[in-house]
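tool=predict chain=A
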Amino acid sequence: MKVTFVITGIGMGHIARESAIIDKLKRNVKELEISIIGNKKVCDYFKGKFEVAEIHGHNFPEGNFKVNLLKMLLHNLNYPFYYYKDYETIKNHLIQFNPDCLIVDSEPLGVKAGSLLGKKIFFIYNLDLNTWAEFDKHKKLTFMQKIQSKYFFKIVDYCYRNSTLVFLPGIKKKTDEKNVRYVNPIIRKMPIELPDVNTLMRKHELEKKPILITLGGSFFGKNIVEEIVEISKNINEEFVIFGYNEEKVIGNVRLYKFREDFLEYLKICKGVIILAGHNSLMETIVYKKPALVFPIKNYIEHYVNMYEYKEYIMHKLMKDTGFLKVHIENFINAIPKIQEKLDKLEEIKGNGADEIVKEILIYSK
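tool=predict ok
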């Protein structure tokens, strides 16, 4: 069986969940060939493991908690050129590799090229269009936000209509409709699969449960690191930060790049501070960890994520980093109350990758 993955996204979440699906495919398919098409971050991660083809994709010009829509449009003025270049790259790779099917994570051009070539397409996305439409109806958006929402809604709707199956990982029970399959979250390892907390605390040389901060591999969160290092000096907590560009220890703050043992830290932490990426939200809720969540301003996908899961988390819109200290202190004080609420949740399965692979193998015959 030959499978091509087409993956894009601004953080590491898309890479993490497709890695989980790849692992499940390897266990279920004896003769398996895989190729990867993605942006630079994706190709850097998978290079040396599989055949890769790099595309450009959209760019975000910011380095903070805000998407400036006008700047983003100006920054992507050359995207029409890259659009056709990316499309040709994907199409030519599919012709050359000739996969039996495509697994597309959020990249519409993968659906377009695969559809043209008559390939079976399995589209994995974060947002339920029904929830998205409900969000648009009930939330007050600026004029530019409305344009952004409608534009991306139409693109995703196209992907829905032109895919063999659409998979939507999430924790809420919903009924499948047409070609849409609602599956459990895609979690690489469940808490029970990891060593116990005391063992992990000794392994990672931690004396107390830390506050875990993950920036998702996205540059949007990296500008808060120095702020957190400064703030932490006056907070009696240990902080572990993932997604920095180097690894070092500054006082009570540990800075790491992306690490494969991230879920071990998630299991032992007392709370997490994350961006509103879908995969980060799923891992946090499944592990039942209190979370302070910052959606990137003007980034509609994050807004819809917050709308969908607002009852499980504490969320704040970060206007500037001047409010960061207050938000963190308020969150730390609220952790016990949030934890009580999370402890009442039923156990959530994280076997979305198993469910997806099972369906793919049925529909790929």
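Confidence is low (pLDDT under 50) at residues 61-67. The chain is about 45% helix and 15% strand.
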